[in-house]
Please model this.
Amino acid sequence: MADVATFILEVAKILYGPLQRSVDYLVHYKKSVEKLQLKVKNLRLRRDVVQRLVNAAERNGEEINGVVQLWLQQVDDIKAITEGLEEGMKENKRCFKGWCPNFSSRYSLGREATKKMVDVDGLLASGDFAHVSTPRPCPSFNPTGEFEAFESTESAKKLVIKAIKEERLNIIGVYGMGGVGKTTLVEQVGKQAKDEKLCDEVVKVTVSQNQDLKRIQGELAEKLGLKFEENNEEVRADLLLKRLKQEKKVLIILDDLWDRLDLTKVGIPSGSTQKGCQIIMTTRRLDVCFMMNCQKNIEVQVLSEQDSWNLFKEKAEVVETDELQSLAREVAEECKGLPLAIVTVARALKGKDLSIWANALRELKQSSARNIEGVDKELYSRLELSYNYIGSEEAKLCFLFCCVFPEDHDIEVVVLMRYMTGERVFKDVNNFEEAWDRIHTLVEKLKDSCLLLDSDYVGCVKMHDVVRDVAILIASRKEHGFLVKVGLELTEWPENLDECKRLSLMGTSIGMLPEPPNCPRLSTLLLQQMNGWEEIPNNFIEGMKVLVVLDLSNTLISSLPPSPPYLKNLKTLCLDGCRRLDGISLLGGLEKLEVLSVRGTNIKELPIEIGQLSNLKVLDLTGSGDLTMVAPNVISRLTKLEELHMGDSFNKWEVRGSSGDGSKASFDEVASLARLTVLYIRIKDVNCLSLEVPGSWEKLKKFRICVWDEGYSTSDYDKCTSINIISYPLSKWVKLLLERSEEIELKSVSKSNIVHLLDDEGVSFNGWTSLAWRS
Model:
């Protein structure tokens, strides 16, 4: 009996705990739910705090820690569950027609509330984050120039590296004449400092003559992975300062200073706050080093006679046995040890016969001094010689057109081409495809001559600031007729424009446009980024009767004046980035217009009047995401169109007038354009894949066709087709483009559909370079 009693007692002990908890679930269910509600309220408050920190970090371009993202998701999940428990309390379920409480429901509520309190306590305990984010890693620092390890440059490089190792030196000045190779040298120093772990990050920004604080701040922020939403310079400076202090040791390269730069206004640590931040600055003037309180000043000197000859011989491909060797040595000596002059002259004369070398030497010896601030008087004549030996007049004019942009500007080759085609620079091209080939040939020729440089951005080139100074001086001659007043504090419209042919006032602060200026010979007018005025006087262009190129990009204009007879010769019109522009119907009268570029605008409609542009060859609506209406029978009337860029704008094409009321543009309008060679388009209706279209797209040289609702392909390939859900049977145009594509993107397409595509539809994939498939 004692054993039985002991057994019963032990069983009772085992069962007591669960039974007690079950009774508590049932009896105290309401109290448990209320207690849970209080804890969840505290959790919500904690979540709000964390979310505000996350939002601030995201605005600063920082990377949110994974544990924080997981915590927020878990909080959201438990909130949904507890809201369900609260609803259960409100229902107050009863059974037996309301005569008896629903014990099962109460038990479940009590048990679930008790369990969730444990989860909530855990989330409250783990939600006290010291940091919710980490700064995004800086983009890798890659020098763009070719560093030649000659005696002078190597000596200067070693001195700069030695100065970096001295932690007490916060600001290091590197100075020397224009074209001596300062930028290339400090870029190599930055790379070596990063490789040898002398610093954690290297950031380089070009300051230039026009100290645009917002641009400098923007470039620094981009390279630090920081995103600005603020436009106020002081706020941006504060954000930059905080971001830079997050790095243990950062090396900042400030390239091409012409005057003192206030580091505090930019957001760069200085003085007592500069710990962990070293600065290297380059300038052509030693006095700027003193203005910036540089603690160490290092001069980059010209090359020695032997180093000059070695560099010249390499670039001109002169061999020791050449009969022109003695002549070549004299030419090399005339370059006075300046690397930029040596390289440009050598490449200009490479492969030329003896008489041309002799003539070049005479020109170099007889050249007169020029007065360009910061440009050595000897350097001017060397660069002008390279210009003279470019060859064709087209190449020379292409070179001069590159100087109309600001210093250190990434020049879009497509924009350059549109200016030059508008001016009819290319005399023997028949279409824009041939113009593309010509401009790329000219750009490569100028790059080979070291008169243009590669850019970090695809489709762009840059111009060395010294080369640009010389180009502006050449371009200002009467026969070329350029007037370039870019990035200067210009507040009044320039006078004496009677002989001016090309006028560039980009980024100036002119507050009002004159009515009208007298510019009888003006053929190109560039007014980009001039934000001092918001409207164009109706008679502004009355005195510009031969104008063929007009660029008003990134201005504050909201509308255009009615197309007057004075613009009857206009060939190229650029309105890119004009965010306030409300419509373009007034352009219908520009019957000779060939290029209309409205990239990145907020226009909502392509009106019927655009169909009057019977000579239009390029229509560029890239990035106009608000475009939701294309009037019917507009696109089909542009029968001379060669390029249509609508990839990330309008996509609501009707298959073929299927709307019934004729209020929307149809896809077969695009297909009817027989001259198209470039087509970037997004299509929403997959049924277009089965539509047999009247036109033939065999002429397409570049295309990016996206058939899906959201997003747009950002492929680097010239020929890309992206499809979401294939509709069979495919039409001939789809098969043609699929077979000609270099990249295929298939989204939500099954494996069986891919097999069907290749086998049953007979699509050949021999030319495919890339296949991106996402099921």
